[in-house]
## 1
Amino acid sequence: MELKKFFGGALHVDISNIPTYYEALLNTLAIAILAIFISAILGFFFALYFKYTIVRVSLAFTRAIHELFWALLFLQIFGLNTLTALLAIILPYSATLGKVYAEILEEHDSFPKELHVKGKISAFLYTKLPDAMPYLISYTLYRFECALKSTAILGFIGLMTLGYFLQGAFMQGNYGEVWLLLILFYIIIATLRFWFTKYSTPFLIVASFFYLDFVSGFSMENLTRFLTHDIIPSPLRKEQGFEVLFNWFSNIATHELIPGVLNTIVLTQIALIVTALIALLCFPFISKKFSNLPTRFGGGILLVILRSTPEYILAYLFLQIWGPSMLPAVLALALHNGAIIGFIMGQQTNELKLRIDTTKKKIELFGFEVLPRIYSSFLAFLFYRWEVIMRESAILGILGIHTLGFFIDSAIADIRLDKVVILLFFTAMLNILVDYISRRVRSYLRISTTINCELK
Amino acid sequence: MNKIILISLLLVSTMFAKTFMFTAIPDQDETKLNERFSKIAKYLENELHVKVKFIPVKSYAASISAFRNNQVQLAWLGGLSGVRARLLVKDSYAIAQGIEDPQFHTYIIANTHTNLKKSEIFPMNIKGKTFTFGSKGSTSGRLMPEYYIRENLKNSPDELFKKVGFSGNHSKTISLVQSGAYEVGAVNFKVWDRELKAGNIDTSKVQVIWKTPAFPDYQFTIRGDVDEQFGKGFSKKVQAALIKLDDKEILAAFPRAKFIESKSSDFDPILKVGREIGLID
Amino acid sequence: MTKLVLKNETLGYESVTVLKNISLSIQKGEKIALLGKSGSGKSTLLKKLHSLDTQNISYIPQELGLVDTLSVFHNVYISQLDSNSTLYNIRNLIKPAKKEIQNIAPILKELHIDDLIFKKCGELSGGQRQRTAIARAISQNKNILLADEPISALDEFITGKVVDSLFHRFETIVCALHNVDIALKYFDRVVGIKDGQIILDKQCAKITSDDTNQLYHVCDDQF
């Protein structure tokens, strides 16, 4: 019923609405551009000092908290304005960039030690940096695309970006408007390579800087109040003693933290398995080894759309259609992530060189020739997305599923920021734990891959 | 010397002529809120002779925090959100409310599939159904219905119902119960009555099954420091402007017959219920 | 000072022994070709020799050590980094100084790659890349050159030009090679490695085909 209305909405796209979105559109672009610029600079410096534990730990922590959570928090301090949006993107993004930049710089250390250059800065600039530069740039570009999505989504909590209108349109069932906004969004993402070039970038950064007003939201008073009052656990604030504090905390733990963590884990794991199935099912449709050109074209478009639509928007859509339960959340997470993995796998299979006399039967080809060859990288991708899925599982709680986000959202609705901070802390810890396990598993898998190679 | 200071102060204050900002809890469809509040912004601008701007927000919490952070000076709040805002901003008070607001009600509505019938006493048989509130921070969509549910069924909603949801706002609650996504819901009686009159509700699918006893709800709350920011007697001027408002179109958009004076203590029952349920510390 | 000596040295990396109990003495002015199959230990030996006197030795590793995203000019200028200030180095990274270009251009001309001075190394052919690495070694202005198969990708004509240039620029040269003919044609002395030992160490004039056969086996498809 609602699904029919949604697809029917595609026929009622009213282009004359576009001027209504100009402000939100420009805000989305300007915030994403400025945020990624600042994040890249910060990330670069973090990367240089990544060997210090304190840097690594703080980056892991800021990165583990979803940008929407950051935004909800900053909303309490700075209100609905550009500063909140910028900080919400910059914090997790600079941390992610810092980590990945550090990894890239480490990998690209190919200059022979025998040709040792003594001047540290000169050596870095002449040997390491130029080697790593193409990788740094292409990763930053990828992250910019993510930043555009994240910025758009910030509108769902009231910031004036594309998501602002998208949420309103979803809420009121104006699916024609939903389609129009989604199409605008896809156009921006799809044309990225044309308007975000090395020539236009400096201009875009400067223009964004002058376009945005990020000073007016700042109030020292509000910040101080937040840090010295709001986030202090209320029993401490009211000096009610240790016992009350303990009860306060154990109440949160039993009624919110533990159920929240368990639900988050359950949702993550189910979503991960369905992600794997979807990836395995859909990669043949974009692979030259299995499909003809028209199928690949159609499959490609579908996967690109699913890949470009953030989980949060998919979940929002499915929730409108099926009402709140685990199912829409699982489906949203699995479709988005499955499409990402399926897409990479499809491309990988195109590179595979098979014998000329391989079987012509598709299922046999899939099971005997193709899948075994890409299986370990498939697992690696899956474990890599594990952490991402968990971050998103937590955030989808805002939409009503009882994961950690649900309880964080409730605590914010009750203006209990002390509780918010505690829940966020454990959300971050859970994420760091999953990241750690995933890293261990991935490195273990890599070892087993090389063992397999040696056995051949 | 004093004169010079005074003049320069005046100059500075006119240069930075402040805009009077206000917000409202997003309790219904956005288009309706925008229609309602853009009209009243224009009205207040004419009456108060300052620039007036409406700041739309997406959540009850955001409207409270904007009020708290002095990003808005006036807010149209629910009973619960008003109490919360006034607890956070010590020097703030209620100034006006709709004439219907002291006697507000929540309707418990049910999808007709459930065969739940309208009754005068609390419908005990909603136990075990799926249930949706409005927003988490709503008075008529959350606080009061939860209060009556706990009082009559002696347990928390999470334990009583098969599934508990928060639709986000009253319009959405109606559409979710009408579509059958939830079997039972709690909705602001004003929103229901207006939607019904406008023909937006299919009564063959969704019906009112119970009406709560009366409780105080919506009100305009203002920051105490507006007199400092906008000149002496400013809050009185705002109050007077609201009470004498007789523009039929604006009143219909709320919908209220007229606005009357209100004071913070009118909402003490809400504070008490809020504390009982544990929504307020 | 220009004499390099190894006496009963055992060389290897981590726990793997590559060369066992070898002795080698290199006199000033010698031009030595180092021969042996891939993996015989030529690179290990060169690295060891390099560590004896890093001050006076220019070294060209087999993988060349070029920075692909920088131009030929910058890759040659890398050898000058330590003799200039950091600020001047940064300036040259952004816009090369005329003076530096004038220093480097003649070397590139000798090697027939002067037209490629501002081309990125990643875009060069194998032979052009080798000559860039050679130019970097030359621009260091040192007496001794240790090079690990630096001319394997050059054609016959260019090989002659490059070897001439190297002989002219360096007093002492030890050069690992693949090609026996080139070794015999240009160098004074041949050192051959096999099975972790130096099995051949003679003046070129005295080398017989038996010597080279023993080094590579007759049937080896390497030549």
Note: Residues 195 and 201 of chain A are 8 Å apart (CA to CA).
## 2
Amino acid sequence: MAFKQITSPHAHAAQNTSKVMQLVLWATVPGLAALTIQFGWGSLINVVLAVVTAVACEAAILKLRKRPVAFYLQDYSAVVTAVLLGLALPPLAAWWVVVVGSMFSIIIAKQLYGGLGYNPFNPAMVGYVVLLISFPIQMTTWITPLSLLPDGVSHPGIIESLGIVFSGYSPADGVTGATPLDVFKHSSGLVVDQIYESNPLFSQAAFAGVGWEWVNLGFLAGGIVLLATRIFTWHGPVAMLAAIAMMSLLFWDGGSSESPGSPLMHLFSGASMMGAFFILTDPVSSAVSNRGRLIYGALIGVLVYIIRAWGNYPDAVAFAVLIANFAAPFIDNYTLPRTYGHTDRRRATEKEED
Amino acid sequence: MRSTWVTPGGVHPPENKHQSLTMPIGSLPIPEKLLVPLSQHIGAPAKACVKVGAKVLKGQKIAEATGAVSVPMHAPTSGTVTAIEDRPIAHSSGMSAPCIEITSDGKDTWIDHKGVADFEHASPQALTKTIADAGIAGMGGAGFPSAIKLSPGHRRPINTLIINATECEPYITADDSAIRERAAEIITGIGILSHILGNPVNILIGIEDNKPEAIAALEPHVADTGISVVSFPTKYPSGGEKQLIYILTGKELPSGQLPADAGMVCINIGTTYAIKRAVVNGEPLISRVTTMTGNACGINRNYETLIGTPVSHMLAHSEFNEHACSRLVMGGPMMGFSLTSAEVPIVKTTNCILAPSYSEIPDDEPAQACIRCGMCAEACPASLLPQQLFWYSQAEDHDRLEAHNLFDCIECGACSYVCPSNIPLVQYYRHSKGEILKAREEKVKSDHARERFEFHQQRMEQAEKDKEAKRAARREAAEKAKATVAANAGTAKEGTGPAPGSAADIIAAAQARAAAKQVSPEEQQAKFERSIAGAEMRVQMATDKLVETNAKQTEDQKNILNAALEGAKQKLEQAQARLAEHVKKHSEQVK
Amino acid sequence: MIESIAQQPILAALIAMVGLGVLFGALLGYAAEKFKVEGDPIVEQIDELLPQTQCGQCGFPGCKPYAESIASGDAINKCPPGGQSTINAIANLLDVPAPELDAEHGEEADLRTVAYIREDECIGCTKCIQACPVDAILGAAKLMHTVIAGECTGCDLCVEPCPVDCIDMLPLTEGLKQWHWPAPQNQLDIIASDRSGHEAPSNEGRAA
């Protein structure tokens, strides 16, 4: 009788990478639904377009690199990247915007670095930033939320949306508009109360900003599901949200004309929740230890607020995440956990303990 | 209820313990041939003390312990020694090692043996010796000779005796069933341990709360004994020595230290039973409880198994279906190792033979890329960062691996268990540990070679210098002689000396040559002084080396160096004596 | 005074430059004294990495001389006993790209070897004793010689001088004590490599 020589442990938990990725995909559904309800079919088209491009690119590159294509496509990582990029892009963006971003994410930011697990930067955010810098007009044209559409105007239907996306025509007047963060960026001279009264984005909002609050709630819900299933730990997201809340509380100054906005507005506007639960939790490019993830998350939160409040861009999750990606190895070096039986934490470069 | 502490990390694999607990501990027919490996424990292998063809009785010593960390082996049944040779043994490598094969005579006749019932009156030293002679090594897994744990000479007095009844690995129920059926004897064994260790203040039996029957079996026997049965929530790997110590006492064992350094002794509960049998009944360790389980076997139960029983014999009596078996594991599914052959024998540390079906433990999926999800870090009981260790192991970055405390990894397998990418993390760590240890060993060797090479160079240089000095001395003497000859010739010419070419001339030349050959007394003295200086230097070097070595080297090396020092000293004395003689002679000549 | 300097920009610049020069000069001088490095550590560091077989395959009489030569710019790929891992380590130390082993100097052996003298054939000529760089051979003229296996570096310098060819280089076999787990093999090639010899892995056979 001869048996196989196999290393222990012999038992394995049922979890695998494909399942983790699929769960992340399902968790984006509430956010995607909110986006679709509030801003029309655009986001859904973005997502589908990005996924098709990403999978095609991934397959092509794997083929070029002589890797088993089917095996690697099964990990769903390209799909997750594409879905996150699609969700981040403005609805009804021209098809080539989505395709270029998705290609850049997969080919340059992921596969050229060695594929899944080897990319130092979040691929979706690299794609997003490339688009934001290259095509600023397309990337800052957002759709007006459903409830603020002028009378008689509605979001384009699915056929019409496809027409807009693939023909490159702009959507009808009144369908596009500013985001809450845009409003704050461009309303210098007005105190917060005035902005809230004058702008229907706020005056008709439940608590943060029309449409956006629901989108953020959707991503929050998805994120909580992922937390509950222990796909990631709470450290990163909580640190980021706490940092945003702290910063906006600190600089709110009671709502003067210089105020960059209330904590609630910042937490539930733009890509805050999506960033916290879906972007910075990308484990590949983030810090590795729990302490490291606290610092990493807090760094992103602070950077997001700084760029929103005093930078040139209304939202900043992508930039903040990329900058924090740079810092991740540095954070790792100083945040090794204390091992059992050791009195002190080490630094990653120390061979001997003090 | 004593309070317990909670370790970080850990996993909850399906327990699968009920299958083998439906029946009480059974016994197998005596196999025709038993194979007793000479190394079943940590430390030096035992040395066979029987010859091929010898008749042995059950319990007879067949191999002696060699050195301090070693245990003897005993014949598991009566019969004939039919071979002493290398055979495949239970080891991850599938390699062979020396074994004693005993062909059973089927009578199972015991050798005369006698125990001490009133161990309270025996001296701890005598009891420890009994335990050592009974060949008892830790039966929980590592196989560390038990007598050493109990020996005096601890740096600190032992105040805590921990009995490990955790059995946290899935499938294994050997300890559980032994406790259920043999609680009284186990408690006696603990009593013996307590007596040897001078009655430590705390005697704790650590047991997971998934064994309520075992806890209930222990409870009546521990009343009024000062022994506490401490149960705590089930979590793998609570049974690791370091983990159990933390769970029970809240203290962490400093990295690289033994429990004894912290005033604790940790003994597996199966070992306490063996200790009781050895002391009270006088029986050496020749059998143990082993769990036979897994869906590839029709019968799942615990057996009292003779050490040396081939696994195939066990499988044959358990309705084993080879085609249904995905792998054969000795030990549990988390830390056990796969056997490549079923002919290997059960040893003192074998607590389980697991023969799972493909549906239970399927073949490993190919590993995917590490996405650094951190699930491994969440599961690690030692608070390491397994994902980082994996990267550095792949990159063979030994410095980083050590900085990330690779050597604090207990190889429990929790990280690989949870890894969604099916990466064989533990194998990476084992490989890297082996490589680092090898590199360290090679470093020591190459440093040694460098030292010897440098010494060699120095010696050659010195020899060259000495030769050069000799040559110079000879040249000088020759010149001097020439000058003398010339001077002589001069006087001869002036006087009425013989004509050139005459006999006298030839004699003078011969005398001059002789004078040249015979070194002048001064030169000879200088030579002796040089040799004394050389000898003194050697003595100095040998002494230095000895002092330096004293601190770290073994007795043998010390002896060699001592001998070298003695030799050098003798040479020095000789040289000094010769010099003294020479000086005396010379001064006489002068007179 | 200060005003007059301020009015003369050239003078001001001159003073500033000279002042800075003096300041930094003093700083550098101080640092050179304070953090003075004794000896030539790079030679020692390279020597640490060499395998110390003292075999001379690199063309130098021992490891130290080769280390000195590397420090003064020699190629780092002349050490067959050290093999690729030594080359990598030295390349890492010197921060240069790691070349492949120079085949001119020999090939990397898979196993370590140790010299063994077939003692009944030995005529006691002491030639091997003289050749041994680490004094690992024991014996005297016209008496049998033997190798102290623990001290032998496996350099095979003693094989050549033996007039009766009674020295064998025996491979050191790996026993249970030396065995350790090999690196996992069932890995899909994740790091991209277009070098020849890296066959594209397939899914077949991986499951086994």
Note: Residues 42-64 of chain A form the longest helix (23 residues).
## 3
Amino acid sequence: MNALMTNTYPVTAADYTSAGRASADIKRKLKQLGVSGDVLRRVAVASYEVELNLVIHSLGGELSLSVYPDRVQLVSSDVGPGIPDLSLAMREGWSTANDEARSLGFGAGMGLPNMKRNADDFDIQSEVGKGTVITMGFRLA
Amino acid sequence: MTIQDMVRILQARVLIGHEKLDTPVYTACCSDLMSDVLAFVDEKTVLITGLTNPHVVRTSEMLDLKCLVFVRGKVPSDDILESAEEQGLVVITTKATAFSACGMLYAEGLRGVPVPLEWNTEDDA
């Protein structure tokens, strides 16, 4: 099925000031397309979490939004460093965030589990030295 | 209660959103950890916090929160207030500490957001 809309947002590593701008724009665009309520909130939260992860943990990457008639898809891909132990990374409370991220109120080890909880479909692939790709799908009622 | 009631109870100063003080509020959450707010809050509620960085407002935007209460008299910078205004948030500040602010609001009937949480049974052994 062809996408109604696609958009890609570059996300810069350690740019804490801009973190969240892509997600704010994604939320605005979805709202304009008539997405609302629970789905809009879940996409917004998952998007913000994954965008923050790119800023806090990655060496840089991008966040892509695709909107189809029956679903929204978010794909985050980065250029590294990759996650050595995915099961540990998915555990609530586990975090490798630095002090700067923690001082802003993040790094509680809730990001990945929270993305999984909010998305209808969640997939994460990671290779150390190469990078991480997270794909999330959200069904539109 | 309404946000106006919260302003009265907390003897708070309204920074943004004077026109929306009659908005009803039923629940609130209090945290400086935006990670937790993002993970556990799933209703349009009030956030009481001592954190004044832009991510407090951005977190509120993602969750469609109604009102931000800054404690210990904290006032965020103008650009943060501007982005709160763009979103239609009400922002107030109180001299009370987070603990006292929560206590005063709870005593007047405001309740915490329901957080579904189950003990890990393995930890009970």
Note: Chain B is about 40% helix and 20% strand.
## 4
Amino acid sequence: MMQARLSILLSRAVAGGAILTLMTGCVTSRLENAREGVTGIAEGESVVIMAKSYHLGNHTERSYLTCVEDALARGSAGLNVIPHQQFVDSLFPWFEPRTAPAETKGLTKLMQRPGVAERLAEKGVRYIIWLDGDTERVASGGSLSCAAGPGGGGCFGFAWWQNDADYNASIWDLKGLESAGTISADVSGTSFLPALVVPIPLIARTQTAACKGLADQLRQFIVADAGA
Amino acid sequence: MWLAPVVAIALSGCGSSVTMDPPTIPEPLLEPMEVSVGVRFPENFRAFSHEEETVGAEDWSIDLGRSNEVLFTQLFGYMFENVIVLGPDDDPYALDIDAYIEPSIDAFEFSVPSQTKTDFFAVWIRYRIKVFNSEGEQIANWPLAAYGKSQASAMGGSAALQRAAVLAMRDAAALMIDKLDRETGVGSARASQSQAAASPADIDNRPLPASAKEFLPLRAGEFTDDAG
């Protein structure tokens, strides 16, 4: 009896998951990388994900940064990721939006500041990954209207919108104080909301796709030459 | 009876108010300046509030409370060898200090998403730092502009505005750690004081740096090595 109930629940969950998978909008992704140097990461070395400064006009969302951190650290092949706020606080004030180096040229001067090189070594920071870019709604259309009365309510119509997620990651290797390369993620997603009494959202998870895609590329980029 | 609170809420209009908890900064990576300074905070460092009226949208106000006093006390404590915080009636020149600092707020502004049509709250604070030597002469008057920006989140606008204000204060702290000495010369206050106190005979007998010797005119009977 109990087993039959569990089996029904399980089949419903699987069916629900399948429907949810089917009920997503359309997403297209393009990921590119440009390597400038040999990479690799040893035991005990770690990476930090940072957003480029808003003083430079960058608007990378905190949620995106956290998503990339989590995705890079996840799984058996996950990298050792230092949470960005912890890193910024431990090196205060040299990674604040105003003072953080904008180019690798600034790393030499940064390392000469009191305590900076020692703190980076203590934390085992090998790579700093700078993210810039954001997710924007670039188009929308359709119309949807809802009404409610004493006898009930409902929605009729069709709406859609398109989000573009454009992100760029610059990888700095602190071993040689140089740039190791860049990875870009350009993801476009269109969501639909048809409604015939009940609205059925078909949401394109554009930012999530850009996060996962970029994190996978970053992991491959960093560990690719690990044996070299 | 129940109508009274509803009317009170309606009459209060649409507005959001944010009260700041005094921020703390992480211990910075720096070498403290070897000077003893006296600091007097103006009244508005202990209680400061600001309101932004937005046409056709809700008004916002922020109460910084003692945030500036707490921040500057902590910051100067890290930056200088010795800091004495003066009361309103204390005479700084009766103390054994190398310099006296008077910070103030020239301007405070913020913007909310309804004004900028973005997802971001931004805070600008313009501080002014006046530095006096131990004789009471003003040696510097430095205006510095700090900026903080934070994305509105699911937690609501109040948290984002508060975070933007904290970031602006951290920005001011970072700027002062990086540039206060260069802009005001406060770090050399002790050296210039001891130089001024030195007797003319001492000054005449001080050894010259090698680079300065190159520019001294030759006196009769003196020859350079090259002249043989």
Note: Residues 2-22 of chain A form the longest helix (21 residues).
